[in-house]
Specification:
- InterPro entries: FAD/NAD-bd_sf (IPR036188), GMC_OxRdtase (IPR012132), GMC_OxRdtase_N (IPR000172), GMC_OxRtase_C (IPR007867).
- With about 625 residues, the chain is of the alpha/beta class.
- It has one domain: FAD/NAD(P)-binding domain (3-Layer(bba) Sandwich).
- The protein has 16 helices and 25 strands.
- Strands 1, 2, 11, 12, 13, 14 and 25 form a 7-stranded mixed sheet that branches.
- Strand 15, helix 9 and strand 16 form a beta-alpha-beta unit.
- Helix 3 packs parallel to helix 16, helix 5 crosses helix 16 and helix 13 packs across helix 15.
- The longest helix is centred in the last third of the chain and has 21 residues.
- The relative contact order is 0.17.
């Protein structure tokens, strides 16, 4: 009983402090972690204990070593350990989730905690003008569950053309018809009106559900979108052009991470699976003569260890850490590795194909409603009660309520292939009084104070405009050969001016929807306080919005392509269509770094699919080697 009392008191204290200051968030989170307190998960279990951190590899040698516990890594650990004769080790650099991770509304705060690697892109004069040091934040999850433990939980698979084009580029086995069963295999859908849809499965381990809470504002946005000609769709169904309420990786209103879906249910029942957290892998061990991977080196509790594998090393460390580990292990561009004194094992273009769904935070609109926008002061005792019962405003996935996938006039693609996503938020950076989202974005305090702070306490809404198919691409490279130093990130957003122009079309469509009868009924009016650095331009003109796009640039955790998949002979590829590193034996990369081009989606769903498909490919490979 005392645990329930403590949970109740802790949440109340958190809420009374304005949705958590960073320091208070860390204090509460760490204390709860230490005493093993948390709400019941979907299996009726309470809390997150030190059971992971207490573990060390119980063996010196495994069949498979998986590095990274994001969606693909957790799926791999689950599916490969189904074979009881295979010994599987999963290594994660971060720690297990706490109960605060489970509260969807708190998503933004975890970008300012130890659950985020805290990466920052290099400065560029073309973007992120409104961010500290003019550098974009690059959030990536550092916890059991990877980025699925800190992201905004949106489940969006993409368009069939995305995957069919992978096949056209020589990647056999990755057509939409071939990958759809793997999307479905993971999914445990609870979506109203879609119970009989062939595009959804209801028995998989990963919960996908309607967000329990919907504001009056989002209902107006969806209705207004339809009034302006946008069809209401299931964007994970037959068509991807239209408007929809968000489908989320939550279970009864609580975050469903890769760890809670694929690891926690099997952790104690499968003795052949060993999960080790706070284990920072620093190198893949590769025999330079045979070019065969045979293990990894990692650091835990300031001690260096080596562990070996009989079959494969599988990197599932994400679009930043997988290429970093390849380069530290001698796989990369020869000139770059020579510069940092890393001996070359295999020359491949690692890190060179980095795409991202660059986004723009804006525009913002005021309305004449009361209590419909997100606001820190809303979270009181009734809202906490609602959350504990699986509904209410705290189930909102970081504020995201609806998606409108549109095709702009800039696109030369077919009509069923959107190029922009409008992400509806019933609020803005001001909703948490500058304590969470502003820090995650790295927005300057001066910009926040001048533009967003006046909105505190006023009902308003915003749209984040996300570009699906950017023409600009960047790269990452190592600073030096120290595995504890960050890579250097050069996203090169807006190198191609067409990317700015396409986002501009998304802004114009947002304003058109704002002028719909449904939104005007709510008193919608554009918030016309100009950005400080754009004041010389007339607010609302195309040039003003171009300035705004380069000022409020941000990422949504969607970097892909840094270990690009491609057939033998593709000079831009790092792995083959079976995700094996070209020229290196018994080493695969299984995460969204293998995605050749940015998809018409959010990347979490794709990562789960990649993990499912890779598991079957790996099983097929080693079933033929059964002794």
């Amino acid at each position: 009983m005392w645990k329930f009392v403590f949970i109740w008191c802790a949440i109340l204290v958190v809420c009374c402090n304005g949705l958590l200051s960073y320091a208070f968030n860390e204090a509460v989170k760490n204390y709860l972690y230490q005493i093993n307190v948390g709400p019941p998960d979907r299996y009726g279990q309470y809390g997150y204990s030190n059971k992971f951190n207490a573990r060390k590899p119980t063996l010196q040698q495994y069949d498979f070593i998986i590095v990274g516990s994001g969606p693909a890594g957790c799926v791999l650990a689950n599916r490969l350990s189904e074979q009881s004769r295979w010994k599987v080790l999963l290594l994660e650099a971060g720690e297990p989730e706490t109960f605060l991770h489970k509260i969807p509304l708190f998503a933004a705060f975890f970008q300012s905690t130890a659950s985020n690697w805290g990466y920052v892109a290099e400065r560029n004069d073309g973007f992120c003008w409104g961010m500290d040091d003019q550098k974009c934040g690059f959030p990536r999850g550092k916890s059991l569950g990877g980025t699925s433990s800190i992201n905004y939980m949106i489940y969006n698979r993409g368009n069939p053309r995305d995957f069919n084009r992978w096949v056209e580029a020589g990647n056999y086995g990755w057509s939409y018809e071939e990958v759809l069963p793997y999307f479905l295999k993971s999914e445990g859908a609870n979506l109203r009106g879609k119970e009989n849809s062939p595009y959804h499965n209801h028995t998989g381990p990963l919960s996908v559900e309607d967000v329990p809470y919907k504001s009056k504002l989002v209902r107006g946005f969806v209705k207004g979108s339809k009034q302006m000609g946008h069809k209401e769709i299931d964007y994970n169904g037959e068509t991807q052009v239209g408007v929809s309420y968000a489908q989320a990786n939550t279970f009864h209103g609580r975050r469903e991470s890769a760890a809670s879906a694929f690891i926690e249910p099997i952790l104690h029942s499968r003795r052949n699976l060993n999960v080790v957290t706070s284990a920072r892998v620093t190198k893949v061990l590769i025999n330079p003569k045979t070019k065969t991977a045979y293990g990894v080196e990692y650091v835990k509790n300031k001690r260096k260890y080596q562990v070996f594998c009989e079959k494969e090393v599988i990197l599932s460390a994400g679009s930043f850490n997988s290429p970093q580990l390849l380069m530290l292990s001698g796989i990369g561009i020869k000139e770059q590795l020579n510069r940092i004194n890393v001996s070359i094992v295999q020359e491949l273009p690692v890190g060179r194909n980095m795409y991202d769904h660059i986004s723009h935070f804006g525009p913002t609109f005021t309305v004449n409603t009361t209590g419909q926008s997100l606001n820190a002061n809303q979270i009181q005792i009734p809202q906490v009660k609602q959350f504990l019962n699986g509904h209410g405003i705290m189930t909102t996935i970081g504020g995201v309520e609806a998606l409108n996938l549109i095709k702009t006039k800039n696109s030369k693609e077919p009509m069923d292939f959107p190029d922009i996503e409008l992400i509806f938020v019933p609020g803005s950076v001001a909703s948490d009084q500058g304590s969470g989202l502003r820090k995650g974005l790295r927005m300057t305090e001066a910009l926040y104070e001048q533009v967003y702070k006046p909105l505190d306490g006023i009902d308003h809404w915003s749209v984040m405009v996300m570009l699906f198919h950017p023409k600009s691409k960047g790269y990452l490279e190592l600073k030096d050969n120290n595995p504890f130093h960050w890579p250097r990130f050069y996203p090169n957003y807006f190198d191609d001016e067409d990317d700015v122009e396409t986002i501009l079309e998304g802004i114009k469509e947002t304003i058109r929807i704002a002028n719909s009868p449904a939104m005007q009924k709510l008193g919608t009016k554009i918030y016309d306080v100009p950005l400080p650095n754009c004041r010389d331009l007339i607010f609302g003109t195309d040039d003003y919005w171009r300035c705004s796009i380069r000022t409020l640039s941000c990422t949504l955790h969607h970097q892909v392509g840094t270990c690009k998949m491609g057939p033998v002979g593709d000079p831009t590829a790092v792995v083959d269509p079976e995700l094996r590193v070209h020229g290196v034996n018994r080493l695969r990369v299984v995460d969204v770094s293998i995605v050749p081009n940015p998809t018409t989606s959010h990347t979490a769903a794709t990562s789960y699919m990649i993990g499912e498909k890779a598991s079957d490919m790996i099983k097929a490979t080693w079933e033929t080697h059964r002794s």
